[in-house]
Structure formats: C-alpha cells, structure tokens
Description:
This protein is an alpha/beta fold. It contains 14 helices and twelve strands.
Amino acid sequence: MLKKTGVIAASLLLCAALLGSACAGPQAALEETQTPQATQTPAPAQTYTFQDALGHEVTVAYGPERVVALMGSYAETWLLAGGQLVGTTEDAISERDLELDADTKVIGQVKTPDVEKVLELDPDFVILSPDIEGHMKLDELLGKAGVPHAYFKVEEFEEYLDMLKICTELTGREDLYVQNGTAIAEQIDNVKMQAALSSYRPSVLFVRALSTKAKAKAKDNFVCTMLDELGCDNIAARHDSLLEDLSMEEIITEDPDFIFVVTMGEEQAALDALQAGIQSNPAWNNLSAVKNGKYIILDKDLFHYKPNARWGESYETLAKYLYPQLFQ
C-alpha cells in the first residue's frame, strides 16, 4: 500500500511540473533563449559640408587644427570663431594687428600669397577670397593637392554672419557665434530702429580716397549699405560720373548734408591729394557739409577694413554722426 501511494505521489509531482511548463507558454521559453542586444548609438559625423561663395561643395573635418587664412580679415574671423592659425598673410599684422601665436607663419601678401609656403604648412583647411585674383589661381592647385579650401565673400554684415556661422560649426564654438555674431546683430537692429525714429533723411556723399585719386561710392561697399540702412540719400546713386571722378559741379548742385571720407593706403597722402584736388575749388568752403562741420574722415578700422565683431560699433558711429539728437 505504501509502495502504491509513493508511485501516485511521484506521478502527481510530474504532472504539476509539466503543467507549470505548459502554462508558462512560448513567451517564457523565448525569454530563456533570447540574448538582450546592446542599443546602437549612431557615431557622430566626422566631417562638415557646406557651400562656399563660388558654389563649391566643401567638406572639412571637424576641428581643423592647421588652418591658413589668406586675408587678415578672414584670419580674424577664424580666431573669433575659436580657431587657431598656422599661417596667414602680412596684412593680419600690419593692418589688423592680430595677436598671433609665435609659430604662426606669414605666407606673403594678401594679393600674392606664397603657395609653396602654404603647402609646406600641411594645412587641413585654407580660407580664401573670390575677389582676389591671386586667390582664385590657387583653387585648382589646392584641389589637386587634396587640401580642403573655401572661398568667402564678405561685403556686408550678413555675409560676415554667414561666414562666422560656418567657422563656429567647424570649431564647435556655438557660444562664440552668439558672442561675436547674433549679439552684434541685435546691437545693429537696435541702432537701425532708433535711427528710423527720425523723419529726417540726410543726403550724403561717401568718398574713398587714395594718394592718386578719389571716387564716390554708391554701392558694392559695406559703408554704402550701412548708410542706406540708416535712411540716407546717397547722391552718388544719381550721378554715375561721381563714381569715376569727383565733379565739384555736381557736388555743388546736390550740396549734401554730410561728406564722409575713408582713406586707403597712407592716410596723410590721401588727405593731401584731396586738399590739392576738390578742396582747392573756391566753392568747397561754401558747401553745407563743410560749413556745418559735417565733412568727416572715418576711422579706417571701422570703415575701410571689415569691422567683423565691431560691426555694431560701425553702425552706431555712423548713426551718431547722422542723428546726434537720437544718440546722446
């Protein structure tokens, strides 16, 4: 009897085990056999691609460390973006007075960069201008050498902002895009809104003077863009002859409220040439701008060289000349 009872108990235990396994079903079996897979995180992009001023698609590795800028203005923009330079042109020192590392090499003049010196630096990114013939000649050569390079055209603030955006994307310094870009844009917007409060539209003559000649400018110059955005009437836009030679007859007829001059090259030589030229005309001293103290020599750092992070200061300086009552 005991032997039979033991057999029955063993049978009941076996049935319970089989029943439990059946109740767990296929899901339990799957959990026992399935191996958890690690979550796959996409690797960050290693390169950055953008379109330059020539319409070329340019691809550069993030964080380039051996950068050459073939213009002082562009060298400054790269530094403002948090980058470092292994080479740049002489104007970065003579005109921009940039604080460069001791081992940064000078690779020639802005119009005539030494391509051999550029290549000797083994650059991983070269910055050029499409407005300089000597730079355009390097496009094919740098391409064949496999050197990433880009052309930037900066004639007004928005173009500076676009260039700074690309540079800070490459350096990973979005904070510097805000500091040296969007914060300056806000400053400029405030100046323009303040100037717009005036119903007065001053007439202006803007002159670029060298020791050999002087010409008025109506467009294709960032100062002209600023004057237009600040509500000025540029008289050269109505007189094409002023764009070639300064005609006192037309200047007398228009009698502008302001005459702004920016010098190129050696400043005193340019001013002496103006003195011997249009200022020698007896009618010069009768011009309203001259009589009213509104014949103004503009600061080269703000109005000849691209002001970059000082662009807001350039706008504000002009606005204070034009609308002193609004910018106390």
